[in-house]
Write a structure and sequence with these properties.
3-stranded antiparallel sheet, mainly alpha, lyase, citrate synthase (unknown stereospecificity), 2 domains, Cytochrome p450-Terp, domain 2, Citrate_synthase, transferase, about 260 residues
């Protein structure tokens, strides 16, 4: 292999005095009135700048997922890490490293389900019904619906409304929105206590409608939540507390092992 081609990238063109992202000079991106952080995320992952309405819709999803307080494991871990004397970067990394399939991955899973349903040639209601049955037969939850803390996730309504508005003016097609609403309708049939869409479901709609691949859906959520991890790590660093665990030191874990016994 040619040593000059050891690293190859179509993303950034860097040489003395030159910085370009997908061909756009960084000085122009900095100076543009229409390029913000959401636009840069789109550019770096997709290779082109979004329209202003596309960037605004993406930004709404990023804003919504920033934080959910110390009861969220990722945020609690960021705060605990900070009391152990690590740098703020380590605290943020500790938080994002636990955003896996269970905590933070539901959006990606739902985006994959959207794709499966939209590829199904049957009418939408039948395709959704079949997918829900498949998940239940595998003893799995439908990702993106229900919340252990909120009876109704307050982030759902404004995000869904934003997609509906974007659909009505032609920014997105609305196909993934239609699938999500049909899933929500079916899983709530004959239920006294509804299972509403949560933040993962609502942001999955936006990321899918904007054309992001499912794995990028998880990455976008991690980018969003890292802002909350940064804020909480910084706040905890001002507390002067040291070595804080998940519970107050007066609360001991329940011991379930053998009773006290003598060493033979």
């Amino acid at each position: 292999m040619n040593r000059s081609n050891w690293w190859k990238t179509s993303i950034s063109d860097i040489s003395p005095g030159i910085i370009r992202y997908h061909g756009y000079p960084v000085e122009q991106l900095i100076s543009s009135e229409h390029v913000g952080m959401a636009s840069m995320i789109w550019l770096m992952t997709r290779g082109e700048l979004p329209t202003v309405p596309q960037a605004r819709l993406l930004e709404r999803a990023l804003v919504a997922g920033v934080d959910h307080g110390p009861q969220a494991p990722s945020i609690a871990i960021a705060r605990m890490a900070m009391t152990c004397g690590v740098g703020i970067n380590s605290a943020m990394a500790s938080a994002t490293n636990v955003l896996g399939d269970v905590h933070g991955g539901a959006g990606q899973e739902l985006m994959e389900i959207f794709r499966t349903i939209l590829d199904d040639p049957r009418p939408l209601s039948e395709a959704v019904e079949a997918e829900i049955k498949r998940l239940r037969s595998d003893n799995r939850y439908v990702p993106g619906f229900g919340h252990r803390f909120h009876p109704v996730d307050p982030r759902r309504a404004p995000l869904v409304a934003a997609v509906e508005t974007a659909r009505d003016v032609g920014v997105v097609e609305g196909r993934h929105l239609e699938v999500a609403l049909e899933i929500e309708r079916q899983i709530n049939l004959n239920r006294d206590r509804p299972i509403p869409m949560n933040i993962d479901g609502a942001t999955a709609i936006i990321y899918a409608e904007l054309g992001f691949e499912p794995v990028l859906g998880r990455g976008l959520f991690i980018l969003s939540r890292s802002v909350g991890a940064l804020a909480h790590a910084w706040e905890e660093s001002q507390s002067s507390q040291r070595n804080k665990g998940p519970e107050h030191r007066s609360i001991l874990p329940t011991y379930t092992g053998s009773p006290e016994r003598a060493v033979p």
